[in-house]
Write a structure and sequence with these properties.
The protein has a single domain (2-19, 33-147), classed as Proliferating Cell Nuclear Antigen, CATH 3.70.10.10. It is built from 3 helices and 11 strands. The chain has helices spanning 42-54, 106-115, 118-121; strands at residues 2-5, 11-13, 27-28, 36-41, 59-65, 68-73, 81-85, 100-105, 125-130, 136-140, 143-147. It has a 7-stranded antiparallel β-sheet with strand order 3-1-2-11-10-9-4. Strand 1 and strand 2 (11-13) form a beta hairpin. It is globular, with a radius of gyration of 15 Å. The mean pLDDT is 75.
């Protein structure tokens, strides 16, 4: 599959989003295998990212347990936790038997949600793919967004 890759390393499929500086041509997108697939409410996800951004948290540890995603702040805000439960048909979710964990940049996730047009924000659900220390993949409408995990020393 081909898609656009921004200069910040963020991958978008099919279309370019405002606010990202892109390489000129579409490139082959990475073929990634994820252990976990969760379907969550789009507005809940957007509000979660905005909350962490409001507290000026630079990165978040995203953990999938059972059929929920747990967002943990880090640094001095490690006690801030927000849990998003899947509210849709659980048969749409994969990998419920294994917990996966990856750290992501809030700035890039916030840039992503700010770039969504109104039609995509109105989508009732989004699909999030996770694996331990792996990129996060988000599908919303006809858009695919992939963000590399934050490297921690």
């Amino acid at each position: 599959m081909k898609g656009y890759i921004s200069k910040s390393g963020v991958v978008m499929s099919n279309k370019q989003l405002k606010g990202f500086d892109y390489d000129e041509d579409k490139k082959d997108l990475p073929n990634l295998d994820f252990k976990t697939k969760l379907v969550i409410d789009t507005k809940d996800f957007i509000n979660t990212i905005k909350t962490f951004k409001l507290f000026k948290i630079s990165s978040v540890i995203i953990t999938s347990e059972d059929v929920e995603i747990l967002f943990n702040g880090n640094e001095e805000f490690s006690n801030i936790k927000i849990t998003l439960k899947t509210i849709f048909d659980k048969s749409k979710c994969l990998g419920r038997d294994e917990t996966v964990k990856s750290q992501m940049s809030i700035d890039y996730l916030n840039d992503f949600i700010k770039s969504l047009d109104k039609k995509l924000i109105e989508e009732k659900e989004m699909t999030i793919y996770l694996d331990t220390d792996y990129p996060i993949k988000i599908e919303i409408g006809d858009l695919i967004y992939i963000q590399a995990p934050r490297v921690v020393d």
